């Protein structure tokens, strides 16, 4: 980036390289197309309609959201085919989902229990609507999702409800193999495809004619698509990539489209310097010095691999050096690579979009949309 643009940055901030982002989008879409698998990217990473529109323009079948409030933002931004991959529990959530369903071309909702499904069915009946749903199954992540041994029976019960149309199943598995964490995305993806094929077959044998079999996060997405055993993948982080994906073997450093910039505001001594970003800027959802990836800090400093960001307060980041002298001075701007970009974006009200010539500020429209 040109120095004159760098000096215009109000730090701490995030800058997104638009050319690199579009390259990532096009590459994933082309790969999914080559494997004859639909791509329904998760917007949890970017949280901005401008990027959802980019993904859709390149051929995405629709988008995935985690929450109703995110889906509302994306619908206002032009998305008309939305899957909310989160159990539809709570009257407040169901009411908003039903209202949204009236204003988009296709809305798919998620269930993973009869308690969830029955309430959703009654709400749909009161509105004289048929709501499309997918059943979430657990394939090893051990969070939401019906146990796979119970999936066929639950699918059969949901299929019998009057105002729900069960059209498919979905899962989030990520890097898990034989129900344990793994670093082998190939094995994890192969197993994910096998499990989803078997679960879908069991459900169909139970008399439920599901069509969609949806799986795949960024680490395993293409590996699952290669199996030919799912109809759709839902990666999210691939749009920007981050250091975590590099460590997982799903991206290279040159694929990362996001940088965090911070300014050195204090250098009390040669051993450490203080930057203007702390825990309200840099995510702390990754453990340091822990297997399997042993992250050395909460972000990586570009251009000086000796520097470390290992200690933070709310508004202060403490930069140290393994050599003992940071070499930093007050006023320096430093460039950092996020470890986990999804949580980093969600901590910003707005970001800078960089097109190679100029910077444009963009609101993170779905930031903080938790409902």
Oligomer classification? single chain
Mean pLDDT: 97
CATH C-level of the largest domain: Alpha Beta
Global Rg: 22 Å
- Architecture of the largest domain in CATH? Alpha-Beta Barrel
Give the total of domains.
2
CATH superfamily of the largest domain: Alanine racemase
Shape: elongated
Helix content: 25-40%
- What name does the CATH topology of the largest domain carry? TIM Barrel
Low-pLDDT parts are none
> If helices are DSSP runs of H or I spanning 4 or more residues, what is the number of helices?
11
Work out the number of β strands: 20
For the terminal residues, how far apart are their CA atoms?
A: 37 Å
Residue share in β-strands: 25-35%
Summing up helix and strand content along with how strands pair, one would put the structural category as: alpha/beta
Major pleated sheet: 9 strands, mixed
């Amino acid at each position: 980036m040109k120095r004159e643009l760098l000096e215009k940055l109000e730090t701490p901030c995030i800058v997104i390289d638009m050319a690199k982002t579009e390259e990532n989008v096009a590459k994933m879409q082309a790969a999914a197309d080559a494997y004859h698998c639909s791509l329904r990217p998760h917007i949890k990473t970017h949280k901005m309609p401008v990027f959802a529109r980019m993904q859709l323009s390149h051929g995405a079948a629709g988008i995935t959201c985690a929450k109703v409030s995110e889906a509302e933002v994306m619908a206002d931004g032009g998305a008309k085919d939305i899957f909310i991959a989160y159990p539809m529990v709570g009257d407040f959530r169901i009411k908003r989902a039903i209202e949204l369903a009236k204003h988009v071309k296709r809305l798919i909702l998620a269930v993973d229990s009869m308690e969830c499904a029955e309430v959703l069915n009654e709400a749909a009946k009161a509105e004289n609507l048929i709501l499309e749903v997918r059943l979430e199954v657990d394939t090893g992540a051990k969070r939401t999702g019906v146990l796979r041994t119970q999936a066929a029976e639950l699918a059969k019960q949901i299929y019998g409800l009057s105002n729900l149309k069960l059209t498919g199943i979905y899962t989030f598995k990520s890097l898990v193999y034989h129900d344990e964490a793994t670093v082998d995305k190939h094995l994890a993806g192969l197993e994910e495809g096998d499990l989803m094929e078997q679960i879908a077959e069991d459900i169909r044998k139970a008399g439920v004619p599901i069509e969609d079999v949806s799986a795949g996060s960024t680490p395993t997405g293409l590996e699952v698509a290669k199996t030919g055993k799912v109809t759709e993948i839902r990666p999210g982080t691939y749009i920007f990539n981050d250091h975590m994906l590099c460590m997982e073997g799903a991206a290279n450093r040159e694929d990362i489209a996001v940088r965090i910039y911070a300014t050195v505001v204090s250098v009390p001594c040669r051993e450490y310097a203080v930057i203007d970003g702390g825990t309200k800027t840099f995510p702390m959802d990754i453990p340091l010095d822990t297997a399997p990836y042993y992250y050395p800090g909460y972000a990586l400093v570009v251009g000086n691999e000796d520097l470390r960001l290992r200690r933070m307060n709310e508004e202060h980041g403490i930069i140290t050096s393994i050599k003992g002298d940071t070499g930093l001075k007050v006023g320096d701007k430093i460039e950092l690579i996020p470890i986990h970009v999804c949580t980093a974006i969600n901590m910003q009200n707005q970001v800078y979009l960089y097109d190679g010539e100029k910077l444009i500020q963009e609101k993170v429209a779905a930031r903080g949309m938790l409902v």
